[in-house]
Amino acid sequence: MTTVDARARARVAFEHQAWGEAYEQLTAADRHTALGPDDLERLALAAHLTGRMEKAADGWERAHQVFVAHGETARAVRCAFWLGMTLFLRGHHARGGGWMARGRRLLEEMPADSVERGYLMVPTALQALGSGDPAAASTLFAAVSDIADRFGDPDLVALGRLGRGQSLVTMGQASEGVALLDDAMLTVTTGDVSPLAAGIVYCAVIIACRDIFDLRRAQEWTAALSRWCAEQPDLKPYRGQCLVHRSEIMQLRGEWSDAMAEVQEACAHLADPPGDPVMGSAMYQQGELLRLRGEFTKAEAAYREAGNWGHAAQPGLALLRLAQGRGSDAEAAIRRVIDEATGPVERARVLSAYVEIMLAGGHVEAGRSAADELAATAEAFATPYLRAVAGYAQGAVLLTEGDATAAGSVLRESWTSWCELGAPYEAARARALIGVVCLRMGDTDSASVECDGARRVFEELSAVPDLARLEALFRPAATGSSLTSREVEVLGLVATGMTNQQIAAELVISEHTVRRHVQNIFGRLGLSSRAAATAYAYRHGLL
Length: 543
Prior knowledge:
Radius of gyration: 28 Å
Number of helices: 29
Largest sheet: none
Order of helices and strands: HHHHHHHHHHHHHHHHHHHHHHHHHHHHH
CATH superfamily of one domain: Tetratricopeptide repeat domain
Shape: globular
């Protein structure tokens, strides 16, 4: 095949978004005869979209140098911008900043009014947003959008709308911010935006929607991102983040096993090539699932690994410490986090955990203050998810304060909201507290109904810590003393996840005998499943 043929095939592949084929053909052509700047830009983008980050950087750098040599300053600035932007996204801030500075120097040779000036305002605006000055960022992104609209540049239009929407959301102006995020996504879905800008916008909008607990939008745009990724089988950079978002949605729907499989696939995808900072969010999500299932050692390892990737380990790690009975550690961590949180969005992420940990430690006044703040934020954002979160926190505080009647009313509303959102675990937690309300009011029959309903969900999900808490609330008189020493031994092995056959081999007894012991344990303790038995063993220290 001639060099001309390879280039022609590469351009066809590029137009059809066959990024792997485009990269291979352009690389082959470049080995025979150096590519021109247009094909070098294609090579850089194809390399980036297939996960060959250093090859992408090399392609943009070469294209930049050729454009400079030919006096095509505007295109040289574009190459510097995208190279700097992709380096920033990978966490290489010094290199990225260097390329942005080079682009700004070249701008001095250009007319005062150019679309490239808008592009090079983007990193400055992002820096303002990241350093806690969303108002300045909003002003800068508004200027970016004005330039983009004036020159009719689709990529810059999308980036400008995205940045200003993020800034307004961070400032607490959720409705105005979300409108701009939707506008940015509309620009992307019409197909006028380049794949590189589209991927950035998709992921950033989903994160913004998730941060303000706009579940409907997060699900809608995650589904759109999944379709977009599926249309480009060779795509690497955004698929891992898409899998993490899908896992989070599956978790909310109560599909915990599928959520774990999805996030494990995300970790495998993000490991090749290594170095993608999205691995931090994948590890945090894995930690959340492990914590909820009671696999505390593995959960801690996942949270710590998330921290190693630059992702905050809180509030998950603080909630883990609470579940482990290390209340003082949980309090110290969550107090630090809430003190450092600035702005309604950042605080909303941790307030519900703060309420739970404060109430567990007997700090009712602090819990009340945080629950009130969360309710005010929920009212401002007006999203059903955050209102359900705030309702649960308010109900827990009222119950702790002794106002069972008011607590029951608020918790019923929260439970209804969780059911409407299709969130079975959160609905079960609300139902467990409703059971406590019924107990406080002397309605033991209703308390039993609520308890059984919550227990069924926790058992289906293998939510061992929640089952243990339920045991503590509704079976306070039960103890391990009603079991024989052999039954305690069998219960401990059941709690490790062993099957009857494995227990029989471990204890050198028949499987029939093990089955009889398990039946006796369930009958004496009033348990209905192995998950409930595991929770009981955790609660009573029988492991």
